[in-house]
Design a protein that fits this description.
Length: 532
């Protein structure tokens, strides 16, 4: 009687780890032509709309009786700061020369001002002069400043009191460091000091003129040997009231501030007064002796201009405009991600997948990693192409692009990739939950695109729009915010319409990830509970 020898394969036993499952899902993904085409459509949509913006940007100007000009021939309607950003540089300056080593010290004893009326007078014409009322705009400023030159946008460092924000040291328009808190007044004066040592400017404050605290020290590279130093006053336009018939989205009108200084210590006693830049309000601006010191009155502001602010800066092209195709691309990626699992249900191939790998949660994880990885690459590549090539095209055509640092460009590009990756993983989870491609894609569009549309179009009140971008998956759009919101600029343009979002980039990413994690968790639970 012969004995049968069992068959033994000559192949070594294969491994059934997560890496092998990832490889299997990646192989499944890239061998389906339709899914690859979907990725290409997503990439083209993201990058193409951005380049369309760069190619279609236009502006024109015409001097009285002159020819129509466009692009670089028009010039800019605003000054540029040391970093090339749009800035407001308008204030009344009582100045004298200061050499490479010197200092200026003052005591500010009071700050008063005038505001437009809280409500328009009856029958007030929109072009008639406005009455005023006592009051100080919250970011009205009075103090001392060292400025490279009288040219708009030139480097500076200043120690000041802001009406509602205490002592501040500010420099080069975007820098801001707080000092002593509290309002200034006869019973609560503020001593301010600036010292210069070469290119280094150091600011100090004191409550009594004896005990001094350093607020900050900054280096203003390339300062000339002789700079301008002295006292200043500025008060930005009022944003709380509006004076125009019909729809008005502009500021309420000019304001003014007056600072009273004594104990003035400077290299000389000779002062020259005048405006840097154009005065915000006609006839506002002066200085005169007051109680052994000086009283300085002025309007205007020394600050960055947020993109979309107006006054010429709203014509600047922004990095955000190159990313207008993001949601068109996300829709394509969402379709691909949802079909990556719903197609297997439709063709009854999911049973084969689960037979080969019975741990269903691990299958879902592998699919999520694959769609997230490819979506990250597509999103990042599309954003990089749109931002870098779009910026080059716009510059070549002579238009101004609101500048961002290289680090910010990298953050926006990687952020767009992360937005696409997490959104695609969420779309896959929704597909696993619904088992229907059309239903999954509809849910993803509603969750991602509709809140942004409602907030930007102002179809819902501003507060509601901000909350939609805080609590829905659309919070991930904050990953694309390229320009900072300056606390020292009270502005109505900090809204989604102008590319400003209510959450920081990392908070927006956390909200988006939380929604994707919940969706994946529900999908994993249902996969285990339901039949394939």
């Amino acid at each position: 009687m012969s004995v049968m020898t069992p068959y033994r394969s000559g192949l070594s036993a294969g491994r059934d780890g997560f890496a092998q499952l990832l490889h299997a899902e990646w192989t499944k993904f890239h061998t389906v032509r339709g899914w690859i085409i979907g990725l290409v459509i997503g990439l083209v949509a993201m990058a193409g709309l951005g380049l369309f913006t760069a190619g279609s940007a236009s502006s024109s100007c015409q001097a009285s009786g002159g020819p129509v000009r466009s692009g670089a021939a028009c010039g800019l309607g605003f000054a540029l700061g040391p970093a090339g950003q749009p800035v407001s540089d308008s204030f009344y300056f009582v100045r004298q020369p200061l050499t490479e080593n010197g200092k200026i010290t003052v005591r500010l004893t009071s700050m008063t001002g005038l505001l437009p009326p809280s409500t328009p007078p009856a029958n007030q014409s929109s072009n008639a002069p406005l009455d005023t009322r006592p009051g100080v705009e919250p970011w009205a400023k009075a103090g001392i400043i060292i400025k490279s030159s009288l040219t708009d946008g030139s480097p500076y460092a200043a120690m000041m009191v802001a009406a509602d924000h205490g002592v501040r040291m500010q420099w080069n328009y975007t820098g801001d460091t707080p000092g002593l808190v509290g309002a200034v007044g006869p019973e609560n004066p503020r001593w301010l000091r600036l010292t210069r040592s070469g290119d280094v400017i150091t600011g100090y404050d004191s409550a009594d003129g004896t005990h001094w605290t350093e607020v900050g020290a900054v280096t203003l590279s390339g300062l000339p040997r002789v700079v301008q130093a002295g006292l200043f006053a500025a008060s930005p336009v009022d944003l709380q009231s509006q004076y125009c018939s019909g729809y008005c989205n502009g500021p309420g009108g000019p304001t003014q501030a007056t600072g009273v200084f004594d104990h003035v210590s400077a290299p000389s006693r000779v002062w020259t007064g005048g405006y840097v830049g154009a005065a915000y309000a006609s006839g506002v601006g002066s200085y005169h002796p007051a109680g052994g010191g000086l009283s300085v009155t002025g309007s205007g502001d020394i600050a960055p201009i947020p993109v979309g602010h107006g006054g010429g800066a709203d014509s600047a092209i922004t990095v955000s405009e190159y990313l207008l195709g993001t949601f068109a691309g996300l829709i394509a990626l969402g379709v691909v991600a949802a079909l990556f699992i719903t197609a297997e249900y439709r063709r009854s191939l999911i049973r084969v997948t689960f037979a080969a790998s019975p741990r269903r949660g691990r299958v879902l994880a592998a699919k999520a990693v694959v769609v997230a990885a490819v979506s990250f690459v597509v999103g990042a590549v599309a954003a990089a192409f749109a931002v870098l090539v779009g910026t080059a095209i716009t510059h070549a055509r002579g238009y101004y692009v609101a500048p961002v640092s290289t680090a910010t460009e990298v953050k926006v590009i990687i952020g767009t990739g992360l937005f696409a990756a997490v959104a695609a993983a969420g779309a896959l989870a929704v597909g696993a939950i619904t088992r229907r491609g059309a239903a999954a894609v509809t849910i993803v569009i509603v969750a991602l695109a509709v809140p942004v549309f409602l907030a930007i179009s102002r179809a819902v009140p501003g507060g509601a729009g901000d909350w939609l971008l805080r609590v829905t998956p659309a919070a991930g759009i904050s990953l694309q915010q390229a320009y900072p919101q300056y606390q020292q600029v009270a502005s109505t343009v900090y809204s989604p319409l102008n590319g400003y979002y209510p959450l920081s980039w990392w908070a927006g990413l956390l909200v988006l990830c939380a929604w994707a994690a919940v969706a994946l968790g529900v999908a994993a639970y249902l996969l285990r509970r339901r039949d394939a």
